Amino acid sequence: MFMQPNGRPLIPWNRGRIIGQKLPLKLRDIFGVRVRLQLQRRVRDLAMFNLAIDSKLRGCDLVAIRVCDLAREGGLGARAQILQRKTGKTVQFELTEQTRRAVMDWINRKGLRREDFLFPSRQRPGTHLSTRQYARIVKRWVASAGLQPSDYGTHSMRRTKPTLIYRRTHNLRAIQLLLGHTKLESTVRYLGIEVEDALALSEETEV
After folding, report:
1. Cβ(33)–Cβ(142) under 8 Å?
2. What angle do CA 34, 107, 140 make, to 5 degrees?
């Protein structure tokens, strides 16, 4: 064991902590969380969950969405675009029918106006839900699906759909565009693609 100059044992900073990338949700996990939120009539959480999966946004960008970012005349559009805080670049994403329906249910239930934050804070009027509170909500979602909360986080929501798309298509360029990454290397690291993945692809290809 390594010792400090004062003679005390040097304890690693990550001892007992879960480090590394947070896991994406699997299809069965998505369905499990979604069904529970529907049965519990958690209108806000269902809208947030569906939008988090579809948008693939970082938590800070998701909580800062305003109604006008998604709304079109007569309802919600099939696509939207958001300016990312981290990169300063615009990213586009799709809104599936079930997401549009869940978001509209929440907007109507809450009586939100175009200029309002989609997920307003309950403690601080005029502001949006904090990223910390969003993180706690995500932990509740994964726990309800019987998953280990320490293995998942807000980035799990961002990684989920890109991971599923990559497994179906192996199209890294498409994933790069969806995530708004500047460099393809960032996308490779984000998806956690390793040598085993590359070998598996090679084995599937006959020449």
Report:
1. yes
2. 35
Q: What is the dihedral of CA 117, 94, 138, 15, to 10 degrees?
A: -120
Q: In Å, how far are 14, 94, 114, 173 from 181, measured between CA atoms?
A: 28, 17, 29, 10
CA dihedral sign of residues 167, 173, 177, 181: positive
* β-strands 90-94, 79-83 pairing: antiparallel
Q: Is the pTM of this model over 0.85?
A: no
Q: What angle do CA 150, 44, 40 make, to 5 degrees?
A: 80
pLDDT tens column, 109-144: 999 999 999 999 988 888 999 999 999 999 999 999
Strands 75-76 and 71-72: antiparallel
Question: pLDDT tens-digit profile of 65-82?
Answer: 999 999 887 789 899 999
How far is 73 from 61, CA to CA, in rounded Å? 23
In this structure, what is the dihedral angle of CA atoms 188, 83, 91, 145, given to the nearest 10 degrees?
70
Q: How many other CB atoms sit within 10 Å of the CB of residue 103?
A: 26
